[in-house]
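B., you asked whether I could sanity-check this one before it goes into the benchmark set. Here's the sequence:
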Amino acid sequence: MATKRRRGDSKTMMLRFRIGRWRFSLNVVHVTDVAGVNSILPDGKHILMWDFDGVSLEQVVQALGAVQARYQLPRIYILYTGKKGHFMAYCFKRCEWQKAIEIIAATKYVDMTFFRFGVWRKKFTLRITPKDGRKIRLATILEGFNPEDATIDELDSFVKYETISDVYEEKAKPREINIGVR
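And here's what the prediction gave me:
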C-alpha cells in the first residue's frame, strides 16, 4: 500500500510503501547546494557552534549570554542568516567533544535538528555560503569572560551539502484549484 505524507513544516513529501517485511520510502523536496564549516579543529578538539530557528535576536542573546556566563566562555559572534528568526553563532573556545555537546545542549532555543545531526556526525556544521541569495551577516557580538583560545584560521574542515530550498517553501504554498463549470 502506498501512502503520501507531509512531515511537519519541512515541505517534504514522502512516498512510502511496504512489501512484506520491507518498507520503501521516497522523499520529494526541492534542495539547494551550500557549503559549511565543521566545528572540529586539527588537534581533534572543537569550537562551539549554535543554530537557532524561529526565535528572536533577543532570545538568542539571552540564551547565549546565560550559557556564556555559566561556562565562562570567550566572545560569541551571533550571525543573522537573512531569514526572519534564524540565527547562528560561533565561539572560538577550544573544547573536548563531550564538553562541546554539554555546552550546546545547555543552550535554550538551540535547533534540535542541528544538535541531533551534530551529535550523530561527531561534529557540528554551520552554513558559510549564501542560501537562495540570503547572505549571512553579523548581528551582534557578546563580549566574553576569557580570551579566545582558537582562531578562524584553524578551521580547515569544510563540507558541501544540500539543504531544503527557501524557493521551494515559497512555491509550495497551497493553491486553489477550480474544477467544474465556469
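One thing to flag: The longest helix spans residues 57-71. Otherwise nothing jumped out at me.
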